């Protein structure tokens, strides 16, 4: 179960990075668009941290997308 969760975190992070790159946003620019720190976003992209639902909504707000797009991987 732990490995599946880790895989999920990594897949979420990969999708986040793909969307951020497609929008031409740096970590710092995304952080400025939402209530998150750029180092926290980096940890999420690298699958190094647990993601809370509120964080998903903050990231979506910062990217200008629906939260469900972050979960579409």
UniProtKB/TrEMBL annotation:
<dbReference type="InterPro" id="IPR010982">
    <property type="entry name" value="Lambda_DNA-bd_dom_sf"/>
</dbReference>
<dbReference type="GO" id="GO:0003700">
    <property type="term" value="F:DNA-binding transcription factor activity"/>
</dbReference>
<dbReference type="Pfam" id="PF01381">
    <property type="entry name" value="HTH_3"/>
</dbReference>
<dbReference type="GO" id="GO:0003677">
    <property type="term" value="F:DNA binding"/>
</dbReference>
<dbReference type="GO" id="GO:0005829">
    <property type="term" value="C:cytosol"/>
</dbReference>
<dbReference type="InterPro" id="IPR001387">
    <property type="entry name" value="Cro/C1-type_HTH"/>
</dbReference>
<dbReference type="InterPro" id="IPR050807">
    <property type="entry name" value="TransReg_Diox_bact_type"/>
</dbReference>
<protein>
    <submittedName>
        <fullName>Transcriptional regulator with XRE-family HTH domain</fullName>
    </submittedName>
</protein>
